[in-house]
């Protein structure tokens, strides 16, 4: 009896040491995070561009409003990323494509350069490069769900700084390993951030804002978006949990490599829990939705952010999750090896 139990203790100590030994790499991961964060000047330039374009467009369409969305507004943007803008306009007479064409004309007349109207894309946009700020930007029309989900992500990021740190490192890994390419069947940056939020909810570091009393209510295209947005009141929410960023990174990859049940489970930040594919009727392929990795959109709940993943890319993704988990478990230099570029 004694012999067995002392062995068990020794075994537990060893695995604990492996697991918590990862903490020593936190400074390395944090300096990678620091190197990716956009500067104050860059943020100011983005704001400046928003104001300048907003003024120009308002002259023609006084009831329109221009919003920043995506990575430059959700606080998960790297330095030098493109600026995503959304024009909200209520014009029953004009189709989206007409609005895009007219918008391109307005910008042209306003002396902006390198304007392209992409009217046949899945999401029609106007692309431009601003000479004054050197920023490239894409403007879409009436994509208000993206404006609302941008705010949700930004609000989550305010609660605990570890979310932003973790998501930057995960995004940097995904870009280095070429698994952040939706047109190749891998996941969007938006999906990776949702995966990070979910992990921190399960560990008690983040609350589930959509399950709390709503202080922010908007209805966009029949989707009722409601959640608690007074996040300055939640600043200490996760403080009892002292896990380091590198330990959370380990947990993230370990979860997606070895713990997630790809047959049954859907991750859902809307509920703060794992829900079943069965409950959502996501158990079989419908059209192009294969549901091989299921990530529920927080507002458009019929939308699986994993829908882009196919039977080839799921293998690639899972191999990358395993590679990352093993590096964090065993590699002597994880903050370097993790980001080694993928070479085909
Ligand atoms: P990068 O830094 O550019 O990689 P990003 O945050 O701009 O990351 P995406 O390019 O993936 O992220 O998407 C831009 C925004 O569009 C983020 C989100 O508000 C919205 N969005 C993206 N994908 C979806 C989706 N599948 N469903 C709903 N909204 C989405
Ligand atoms: Mg983007």
Automatic annotation (TrEMBL):
Stretches assigned to the Poly(A) RNA polymerase mitochondrial-like central palm domain: 30-158
Localisation: Cytoplasm
Endpoints of the signal sequence: none
Source taxon at top rank: Eukaryota
Domain PAP-associated as annotated: residue spans: 245-303
Family indicated by similarity: Belongs to the DNA polymerase type-B-like family.
Record protein name field: RNA uridylyltransferase
Lineage, uppermost ranks: Eukaryota, Viridiplantae, Streptophyta, Embryophyta, Tracheophyta
Positions spanned in the full protein: 432 to 775 of 780
């Amino acid at each position: 009896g004694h012999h067995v139990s002392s062995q068990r203790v020794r075994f537990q100590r060893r695995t604990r040491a492996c697991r918590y030994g990862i903490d020593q790499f936190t400074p390395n991961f944090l300096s990678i995070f620091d190197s990716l964060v956009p500067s104050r000047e860059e943020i100011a330039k983005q704001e400046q561009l928003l104001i300048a374009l907003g003024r120009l467009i308002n002259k023609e369409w006084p009831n329109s409003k221009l919003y920043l969305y995506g990575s430059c507004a959700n606080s998960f943007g790297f330095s030098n990323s493109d600026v995503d803008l959304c024009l909200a306009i209520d014009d029953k007479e004009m189709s989206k494509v007409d609005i895009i064409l007219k918008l391109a004309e307005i910008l042209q007349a306003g002396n902006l350069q390198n304007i392209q109207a992409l009217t046949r894309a899945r999401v029609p946009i106007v692309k431009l490069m601003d000479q004054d700020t050197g920023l490239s930007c894409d403007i879409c029309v009436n994509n208000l769900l993206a404006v609302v989900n941008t705010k949700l992500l930004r609000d989550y990021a305010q609660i605990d700084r570890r979310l932003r740190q973790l998501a930057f490192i995960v995004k940097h890994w995904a870009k280095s390993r070429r698994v952040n390419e939706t047109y190749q069947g891998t996941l969007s940056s938006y999906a990776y951030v949702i995966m990070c939020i979910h992990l921190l909810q399960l560990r008690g570091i983040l609350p589930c804002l959509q399950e709390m009393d709503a202080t922010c209510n908007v209805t966009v295209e029949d989707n009722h978006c409601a959640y608690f947005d007074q996040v300055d009141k939640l600043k200490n929410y996760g403080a009892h949990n002292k896990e380091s960023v590198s330990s959370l990174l380990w947990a993230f990859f370990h979860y997606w490599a070895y713990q997630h049940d790809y047959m049954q489970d859907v991750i859902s930040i809307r509920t703060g829990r794992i829900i079943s594919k069965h409950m959502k009727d996501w158990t079989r392929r419908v059209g192009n939705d294969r549901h091989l990795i299921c990530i529920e959109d927080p507002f458009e709940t019929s939308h699986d952010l994993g829908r882009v993943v196919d039977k080839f890319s799921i293998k690639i993704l899972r191999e990358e999750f395993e590679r990352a988990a093993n590096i964090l478990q065993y590699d002597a230099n994880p903050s370097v090896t993790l980001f080694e570029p993928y070479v085909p």
